[in-house]
Specification:
The protein is α+β, with helices and mostly antiparallel strands. The protein has three helices and seven strands, in the order αβββββαββα.
């Protein structure tokens, strides 16, 4: 007959050995998805409020589905913070595929108009932009993918020929 004390120790040993395996349930060595800001569309531009739609592409390099929950973002033009926020939007990107989503934003650039005009004075000069944030992924347990993307825009390229 097994003593009560021996049974307790055996149970604790089994529990500890089993919990060691649980860590592997949550470790994930799949590559992080890549996130790209592919387009910025002006919806409306009034004096005190501007509305844009940001179009993102999520590239899934893994061999399994990727569930995207949402994104937290900050967008800078030079050193000026243009917009920041979070957008919750659940969708799934298949293995080795890309998915697209758009984020509606509202901002008030009026307090920053003087700085923006200085940046835009020379329309043929490149202006650096930066996207920072976190993409939240995972079906049951959240995984956060940190984002930092840098690039340049040339304002003249965004202005139609007939308005220059």
């Amino acid at each position: 007959m097994i003593s009560h004390r021996f049974a307790q120790r055996l149970f604790i040993l089994i529990l500890l050995l089993g919990l060691g395996g649980c860590a592997s349930w949550f470790s994930d060595d799949t590559p992080d998805p890549a996130v790209h800001l592919v387009k910025v569309e002006v919806v409306s531009a009034k004096l005190m409020q501007q509305r844009f739609e940001l179009y993102f592409r999520v590239d899934n390099p893994a061999d399994s589905d990727l569930t995207v929950r949402g994104i937290d973002y900050r967008i800078y033009l030079g050193t000026i913070l243009l917009a920041e926020g979070e957008h919750e939007h659940w969708f799934t990107v298949g293995p080795k595929r890309s998915g697209f989503f758009k984020v509606p934003i509202r901002t008030n650039l009026w307090p920053k108009v003087r700085d923006l005009v200085k940046l835009l004075e020379k329309s043929d000069q490149p202006i650096p932009y930066r996207l920072e944030g976190e993409l939240e992924t995972g079906l049951f347990i959240a995984h956060y993918v940190h984002l930092t993307r840098n690039g340049v825009i040339i304002p003249a390229d965004l202005i139609p020929e007939h308005t220059r």
